Structure prediction request, 344 residues.
Amino acid sequence: MNFQNDRYTLRLAVPADNDGIREIFESGSFSGGLSVQYLRPEPLASFAADGDEARILVVRDNERERIAAVGGAVVQRCFLDGDITRCSYLTGLKIHSDYRKHIFFIARAYKFLGKQLSDCTCCYTTILDDNTPVIRMMEKRRKNMPEYRYIGHYTTFCFNGAKNILPVECGMTDGLDRLMKTYFSGFALAPSDTSLRGLGDKQFYSLRGSDGEIIACCFAGDQRMTKQYRLSSYGGIFRPLSHLPTSLLGYPPFPKEGKIIDHGVISFLYIKDNDPKLCRRFLRTVACMQNNSLLLWGCMDDHPLYGAMKSVKAVRYGSRLYAVVFDGRDAHLSGRVGMEAALL
Prediction:
């Protein structure tokens, strides 16, 4: 699809676009007190790792022969109302810093994307709390744009506090299938496939009772082959805090500016009875066994484990979850939500 006198072309991405997409990620950051670059070393493979397939769009500047913008969706098999169905996570539109005030193609891109996602039961996305310009733009109903229907608030917890406290086992997945059917299937947008590459190079950790029943479990994976976070700079109160020995207080150490953060991701976290003390002790043991500087896990603020996670010493950042409704389609999104931070 061409526009603006054929200068720009909107189309599905191909492997030859990887370098241009990577340049867009490297040209931006999400900021605040912490300025962080979110990077994908091999962009199209990284998107695809988060689901069954990626439907990624690019805008190509034909005059300058470069990629000006990238966006799209990752199609995943998720639980909805206890059933497994095809859902799509919109990755957000990223525009190269050279073009952010010059291209007017957003409505055109969403129309094109909506057609690509007509086979998905539910479309959804997240926007960081600090990204207020995008929140204002998307929450205002506009002609030829999908509706961004606010669902709730999502908190990502960044923690460590490593200490070997509990007799946690590594690698034995007995009982996980039952939990998938009886526990995780009750959460909308929880992935139905535990083998997704986007969950990282992972291990399964479990704590069991005397009868062998799982009383706490999770996967923990090193995700840096598909996604990376580079700490660009500290600002505000974080600049003096970054020089403090926070690890001695049970918080993650602050990485040096310009460094890729040694992060891992937690997924499919289960704590019997949502016990806060058990949650804290289990995650500290997993952090010790996993040996990443920083671990991430996230949940909706009404998730049954949210209260337990408040007992874990962590740095938190928030996002807003939206159902993205194209052409008045039913959003099909209600009840408890259990999407994984690793796949956002």
In short: The radius of gyration is 20 Å.
